[in-house]
Sequence to fold (329 residues):
Amino acid sequence: MSAPPPSRVFRTARGEAAERLDRLVVQRLADIPGLSRALVQEWIGAGLVRVDGAAATRASLHPRPGAEVEVLLPGARPHPPPVAQDIPLSILFEDDALLAVDKPPGMVAHPTKGYADGTLVNALLFHLGKAEGGAGLVSRLDKGTSGVLLVAKAPGVHGRLARILRGGGVEKEYLAAVYGPVPFPKGRIDLRILPEAHDPRRRRASRTEGQPASTLWERVAEPAGEEPGIALLRCRLLTGRTHQIRVHLEAEGMPIVGDPVYGAPRWKGLRDPDLAAACRDFPRQALHARRLRFPHPVTGAALEVVAPVPEDLAGLLAAAGLHPLPEGL
Fold:
């Protein structure tokens, strides 16, 4: 007789009472690479998700507070629970309910197949005094993107923050260094986003297919003169799709410097050899999650968290003659 598939079990918190089952599973099993609501819905349809011992029949089910949710994981074994590691963290804000950290470029948020440890979650477990398990990352950033990330210190807070995010209650502002020239001082991009058919990890922009997505952008610095160079944009997300800023700016002819997926080797067209070398050698997408504004999930008080511009991005801007940064950024 074959062994049963491995399983994961958790109990729902009081603050998660309004959450759908499929969302809860994705949030609580965030350490599993590639997990999505669509995949969880398939598991529910196959009877692999149980609530208080009974197979769930609807992804839209709202489990009661304290309910035991068991997920039978088909296929390959999941990664073991991440363990605490003493890795320095840059804390931007912390209280009893949540904390905001400044993720450095190059750090992976969750353990994945290629990154079993050394991740932000490992560092958070140490900071929070937990030997192992999950850490409540509410927002996410790609490995190459730096900046503000929110962390819930309790499941109930996680649920409240997730609802604030989905309801548009968080203002998310990014800085992006892009290849110019940028023809207008500001603009809005309304293009749908969907996975590439040949590579689901990539996204593409479309006017007719995919999920609606909107990005506001504003040019905050650009070299004087007509020579091609790079410009600094301030971007605000009105929706939160995967790779949204990267896909939108590339689609509008303003690819982000250093983007390994959606970028272009436009450094070859730069006449300034020092700037061309700086752009060529920049090791990541020049994208920084600069600021988050949101209501506190417990008190409702307005919070603003700002992450300083990292050294590598500041150096790139200096090479382009865009340093120091304009006042107010």
Summary: The longest strand covers residues 171-179. The mean pLDDT is 86. The CA atoms of residues 191 and 317 lie 28 Å apart.
